[in-house]
Write a structure and sequence with these properties.
HAD_sf; five-stranded parallel beta sheet; 15 strands; HAD hydrolase; HAD-SF_hydro_IIA; Rossmann fold; hydrolase; HAD-like_sf
Length: about 375
């Protein structure tokens, strides 16, 4: 009897030691901010992956917790949020997602559709540009934060000349991005669409006016050609929110704009530069962000070596944007069924097939970590 009691005590002691070891391992994961696994990186879409409109997906929170150290490596895995959304600052988006998921997201981890457009500020710093999209003048303020110093919006133009779009009430002061301005001798040099249009009619009218106004002065005689560059930030025709079916995205406005332009110019093509997924510029920008994160995590690291070994995974719900872009960038794509794509079990998108299809983002991250653990074992 005594030996059985001793054996029982020994087993309990060993079990307690095992639990203590597990607890200490978790604690080390959570309190080692400089302990990173840099051979792997993950880029998440947001809508339809981590959240769905106003609804937060619990799988998203658990997926981010795994990357923050709750994994077999016991280390943090770098990740970014790579979204075709916009209309807010990177800091505001980071704060919103942090609050909703209960996981800290830093502004530098957020890449919005218009984030790479910051580079245009060097070219247009003091030149007059029309900024389109978003709520009231929020996108104008974002543009100024990027370094554009001479910005106007469609509402600013309608306030100056209400007949430019007579199908709305005159904009109030709080809807304007600046004090009332005279545009009669104030040329534009570029049009930049930062976000979805909240008034298609007004914005289609003002944008086509500006693009073909001689000398870039709105209200002047129309030229027979496009007189300035057009930059647009998000080609998504549809996106996913809490509504049971996909909704029109900024790409729907682009479709309307191209059709209007062709009708007004006898079929001439509209020239424009596109940002956002699946365009390569977005992925190049994301890789530079991941490079900076690697250097912050390990300042003395050989960046070239990190780049050579790093495998980037992209998780998204939209085959035409998330998966096509990731495949084109040479990343490993994972398609989830919680958003735009909702194919049956075992199916993939025929036009833009992903490397892996999962039911949700938590399952995707588990597969990524398991795959990378096997890769680490093989290279050891």
């Amino acid at each position: 009897m005594r030996s059985q009691a001793v054996g029982t005590c020994a087993r309990r002691l060993l079990a307690q030691q095992h639990r203590n070891l597990q607890t200490s391992t978790v604690a080390r994961k959570q309190t080692s901010p400089l302990s990173w696994h840099l051979d792997t990186a993950v880029a998440f879409d947001i809508d339809g992956v981590l959240i769905k409109g106003k609804r937060t997906l619990d799988e998203g929170r658990r997926a981010l917790e795994m990357l923050n150290g709750d994994n077999v490596f016991g280390k943090r895995i770098p990740f970014v949020l790579l979204t075709n959304g916009g209309g807010v600052t990177e800091a505001a988006k980071a704060a919103d997602i942090s609050r909703r998921l209960g996981v800290e997201i830093k502004p530098e981890q957020v890449i919005l559709s218009h984030s790479p457009m910051q580079a245009l500020a060097e070219k247009y710093s003091d030149k007059h540009v029309l900024v389109v999209g978003g709520v009231q003048h929020r996108c104008a303020e974002i543009a100024r934060g990027y370094g554009f110093t001479n910005v106007s919006t469609p509402n600013d133009i309608v306030a100056w000349q209400p007949a430019a779009w007579p199908f709305m009430k005159a904009p109030t002061d709080k809807m304007l991005s600046q004090p009332l301005r005279d545009f009669s001798n104030d040329p534009f040099y570029a049009v930049l669409q930062f976000h979805d249009s909240f008034d298609y009619g007004r914005d289609l009218q003002i944008v086509t006016d500006v693009l073909r106004s001689r000398g870039g002065v709105i209200g002047s005689e129309y030229a027979d050609h496009q007189v300035m560059p057009l930059y647009m930030s998000n080609p998504d025709l549809v996106y996913s929110n809490e509504y049971p079916r996909p909704r029109f995205g900024q790409g729907a406005f682009h479709t309307c704009l191209r059709a209007m332009w062709a009708a007004l110019t006898n079929g001439k093509p509209l020239n424009y530069t596109l940002y956002g997924k699946p365009n390569k510029v977005q992925y190049q920008y994301a890789e530079r962000v991941l490079d900076r994160m690697a250097l912050q995590a390990a300042p003395n690291t050989d960046l070239g070596q990190v780049q050579a070994k790093r495998r980037v995974f992209a998780i998204g719900d939209n085959p035409a944007a998330d998966i096509a872009g990731a495949n084109g960038a040479g990343w490993t794509s994972v398609l989830v069924r919680t958003g735009v794509f909702s194919g049956p079990e075992g199916s993939n998108d025929p036009a833009n097939p992903a490397h892996r299809v999962t039911d949700h983002v938590e399952e995707a991250v588990k597969w990524i970590i398991e795959s990378e653990a096997r890769r680490a074992q093989q290279s050891a």
